[in-house]
Structures are given as C-alpha cells and as structure tokens.
Amino acid sequence: MEWREFARQMASLARELLAKESVEATLAAISGAATELVEGCDEAGILILSGRKVDSLAPTGRLVVDSDRLQEQLGEGPCFDAARTRTGERVYRIEDFRQEQPRWPAFAPEAHALGIGSMMGFLLYTDEEELGALDLYSRRPGAFTEVSETAGWLLASHAAVALSSARTHAQMEQAVATRHLVGEAMGILMGSRGLTEEQAFDVLRRYSQDNNVKLREVARRISEHGRL
Questions:
Q1: By CB count within 10 A, which of 34, 35, 49, 88 is most buried?
Q2: Residues in a beta bridge with 123
Q3: Alpha-carbon distance values, 1 to 6, 145, 217 (Å)
Q4: Which residue segments constitute the domains of the chain, with CATH numbers given?
Q5: Nearest to 77 by CA among 92, 88, 87
Q6: What is this structure's pTM?
Q7: For position 106, what pLDDT does the model report?
C-alpha cells in the first residue's frame, strides 16, 4: 500500500464524513469507504450490539447482514465480540475461515458456508463512548494482512469520530425540535385552560410521568389535537 496516497484519501474522507447531514449518510459513507480503501475488503457494515440484539447498519451487501444475524443467533463471532466493550480488545482479524477457529467454534464453519473467506472487526470508539463494530469481509481466505488491519484501524478511528459528531448533531436537532413542539403545546394549554406558562409545563410533565409517555409525544398530541 502507498501510505502517502492512503493518507490523502483518509484526509478527504474525514472532510466528507463531517459534511454528511445525517447519521445514516455518515454510516453509508463509512461502509463504502472500507471497500475502497482497505485492501482485500469486498463487503463492509456496522454492527451495533444492544444487550444480545444485533442491528446491521449500512451493509454494502447481503453477506454482511447474514453474518451479523449468524453472530446474533450463535452469540459469538469477531464483530460480536468487537462490539462488547468489556472484553477490552478492539481489533479482530480472522485470516482463513477454512481453518478451525477455537475462539469461535460454532461461528467459523457457518461463516465459511456463507462464503466468507476472511474478515476483520474493529471497535468504533472515541475517547468518551463506544458505538459498535466496523465489520470488513472478504470472500478470499488470506485477503487481510497486517497492512489491511492497520488501514482498517485508521479508518475505524476516523469513522468513530465522525459518527459521534453526527449523532451529537442529530440529538441537538431533535432537542431543538422538541423544544419548539413543547412550546407550541404549552401555548395551546395556556389559551384553552387559562394557565400560566409554568402551570402549562407542569401539566405536560405530570401527564408524561403518570402515563409513561415521552414529553415530546405528549406535546405532539396536544399540537395535533388541541387537547390531551
């Protein structure tokens, strides 16, 4: 690999990722970049682990989804483990699925049957949060080398920062939208019930708590129907 050219491509990717307007667009760009920048990578995707439930985000092909579902079903696999922060390991590389894999005895033969020759998993993280795993797949055994692993790790590091930024931006946009919606609902209550601003907000808050409904949803109902 020509590292000078790789560095140029990574710099371009970093700017591209930070310019994305949504989390979904950021994820798709990350997966696409993996197939273009990491030698040997045929397919890529992002696995998010919630408890034992797996979500496949921005897969570039069916192979990624099938592998994620298999790892969820078996409760084992390199990307499944990469998303488990308690293990402490952040990078996994399986060079040849034709060979026995003692660490994942159930997953390895099933993965080979799916057409996976080799794969890598990288924990996506920043200094403050851990977000899941970036999965890289090849149909060829031995496709991923130490160079591929280094390139994948660099990509995952950039991707985690961009993904964290995108998530923060999305959360801020949602917070602003919620504030506007709550303000609109409070105005309706103040006008229809003769309440003060504080009293109107207290009505929203108590209804939300008593009925276990998010404040945003309570405000939306009032805004749409004019009442609770």
A1: 34
A2: 133
A3: 8, 11, 52
A4: 3-167 (3.30.450.40), 172-225 (1.10.10.10)
A5: 92
A6: 0.68
A7: 94
